[in-house]
Fold these 2 entries.
Entry 1:
Amino acid sequence: MRTIFADTGYWIALLNPRDELHETAKKLSVSLSSAYLITSEMVLTEVLNDFSKRGNYFRKAGVRLVEGLELHPNITIISQDRQRFKEGLELYKNRSDKSWSLTDCVSFNIMKQFGITEALAHDKHFEQAGFLALLR
């Protein structure tokens, strides 16, 4: 089964009809419905942080998203723990030539750990790290 990492921008675009990538994210969601998705608590934290400032509708949509993903049989949410944080911080420290966020670094490490080469992401940082960003 095809396994793909789902980044913050994908979830935001999927739920926000005003996002410039909304239609692309919807089409990818349909075409990849049989794929197995992996995301992380850090990614979902970014989604909820983004929606927190967009009003009650988006706050509720973000909560529904996270609760739905937790129950979905083809989606795994990788927990954040101390070791994952330290490994992400190490990559963050070692790649000061890039503007990668800590969440990016943790995501890249997860992708390497699971042998994932594709991401539902628009972020150029995924391409800089050697992955295929499917929303680009």
Entry 2:
Amino acid sequence: MNPTDLYWLSRTRLLIGDAAIEKLQQAHVLVVGLGGVGSYAAEAIARAGVGRMTIIDGDVVEASNRNRQLPALTGTEGQLKAEIMRDRIMQVNPQMELHTHTAFMNPEPMKELLLNEKFDFVVDAIDSLSPKLSLLRAAYETQTPTVSSMGAGGKLDPTQIGIAPLYETYNCKLARYVRKRLKQEGMPSENPITAVFSKELPQADSLMLTQGAAYKKSAYGTISYIPASFGLACASVVIRKLIS
């Protein structure tokens, strides 16, 4: 690629150098889930200079998403989040090789995707347990490096966000369920999945039932900056591992 095409990365190059930029340009990252966590993760990864990305989300924008999700605006309600993020990312880097899936991925298609396509890193930004487990199982079975976002709801303090191996997380109900289920399904407790989680206990009175919602029976209230902070932490894991 002509060096002038990468001038937009000149500030990044000052920080990490030419060799790291080249590694990022050659990398292929999968981001599953483009809500409050995944949308920020995907955009930050794109802005860091990753050359190939696959993004997946079958959901559309709703008014209640506007407090925390990049795709959510008054003018985008009813539109597919994956398509909105595709257009945003291509405005950041028109040279990126970007693949977009606008359907919820069931276990078999998810595993098939990871088997058929070589990803250098997976970002799990799914907030529902069953699809999350399917992705984490597939990533583990295909030995694909993975960072997984745990529960961002019910939290207010971004300084309590941590990055650790999944088996070292605590004070997070979602992480506890994920660890338990994966262990029951034969995955070693000390698995290689990196987790982004909060040490802050969720505010119990912010819990609501979500009857009828796909894969989810309940959800916590959220504030604008916590899911974004989770997403940026996930992006940092990806970028730092790719250039290390």
